[in-house]
Amino acid sequence: MLAGLALLPFALPADAVEITIACGDGGEADFCPELAQRWAEANGHQVNIVTTPPSPTEKLSLYQQLLGSHSQDVDVLMVDIVWPGLLAEHLVDLNEYLPDSATEGFIPSLMANNTVQGKLVALPWFTDAGLLYYRHDLLDKYDASVPQTWRALTDTARQIQTAEREAGNQRMHGFVFQGRAYEGLTTNALEWVASYGGGTFIDEKGQVTVNNVNAVTALTLAASWIGDISPEGVRNYMEEEARGVFQAGNAVFMRNWPYAWSLGQADGTPIQGKFAVAPLPSGPDGQSVATLGGWNWAVSRYSEHPAIAADLAAYLSAAEQQKSHAIMYGRNPTRPALYEDDDVLAAQPFIGELYQTVMNGVPRPASITGDAYPRVSNAIFNRVHEVLSGDVEPSQALQQLESELIRLGRRGW
C-alpha cells in the first residue's frame, strides 16, 4: 500500500529502531526527507520516507485508511491544520513523550488548534494565513489607499475596475477570492463573518453562534460583490483560479494564501513589482481576521516506538529546522521569534510582513468538532455558496446553517 525509501548511509548501533515518516509529495519544496535523514544520522536510527499524494483530500483518505486499520506502517504523519480533531483518537498525546522545552515557543493559537480534549496531538510545522493582495500601481494611479474595511474595499475596487474598463481593459475585476463550494469558501466566509464581529460559526465551547446580525451583514456585502466587483465565475474559483486572474493583471484585489507572493513576483509575470500584501479588511467595528492554514507533525498511536517518533516530530518543528525551512523555502514559521530573526528576514523579507497576520489568525472550528468537521465545513460552504449564487437570502441561509450545525452537535462533536 505504501511506497517509500529507506535511507541508510551509515552503520547503525545495536539499539537502533526503524521509524517511517509520511512526508509531503516529494516535490522540490518537500524539506521533510532531508531533515528526517539528518535526525536519523544524529540519533543513530533508520528512517523510511513515504511520499504522500499532493491532494490533501487524497492524503487524508490514505491516513484514515492506515489509522483506521491500526496499521504500524507509519509512525510520524504530516497533518493539515484542520485534521487534529478528526484524527485525534488515532494520535498520541505528545505531552506524554516530550519535555516542556519541545512544546514551548509556538504561536499559541496553533497549539490550541492542535490540542484536542486536553491532548497535544500535533506540533506546528509551518503556517499560512489569509492575506489581501493589492495592485499598488493601480492604487497609486487612482490616488486610492489600501482599504481597511470590506466596505472600503468594495468602493475602491468598483472605482478602479470602472476606470480601467473605460480605459480599455474589459477583463479587469475589482476583487477575486475563493468562492467555490469547498473548504476554501469556508475559510473566506470565516474571515468575513468573524471580521464583522459575527463569531467563528462554533465557539470554543462547541456552541453554535453563526446566526446573528453581524454575520448577516457580512454575507450580504459578500453577495453584493458577485457580478459587480467580482466576476460571476468567482463562485467556481479555488486558490489557483483566483491567482490566475490576479497574476494575469486582471484584478485589483485578491484574497489568497502567502504562496501566491513568490509566483506573482517571478520574472516575466505581468504584475511583477506591481503588487503588495496587507491584512484582510475588517467590518466597521470589527478587526482584521485571517483564517489559519498550515501543516503539523503527529505521531500514530499504533507506532511501535512512540517516544522515538515523538522525538523526530519535535526535531522537525524545532527552531533550527524551522529557520532553515523559512530561509530555503519561504515557509512561514510557527515560532514567533523567527519572525524577528535577521537571517530569516534577510533571505525572505516577506515573512516579516506576515507576523501580525499570523499571530492574529483564527483557526477553523475543527478541533472542537472533531471527526464531524468535514460535515460542519460542508454545511458552511454550501449555505454560503447559495448566498453568493443569489438562491437564498443571508438571513435564511444562516438560520438553516444554524439548524444543521445544531443537529450535528447533538450527535456529538
From TrEMBL:
Record keywords, A-Z: Signal, Transport
GO CC annotation terms, alphabetical: ATP-binding cassette (ABC) transporter complex, substrate-binding subunit-containing
MF GO annotations: maltose binding
Similarity comment: Belongs to the bacterial solute-binding protein 1 family.
SUPFAM superfamilies tied to this protein: Periplasmic binding protein-like II
Keyword presence, Disulfide bond: no
Protein name: ABC transporter substrate-binding protein
Gene3D superfamilies, per the entry: Periplasmic binding protein-like II
Keyword field contains Cell cycle: no
Gene Ontology annotations of biological process type: maltodextrin transmembrane transport; maltose transport
Alphabetized InterPro entries for the sequence: SBP (IPR006059)
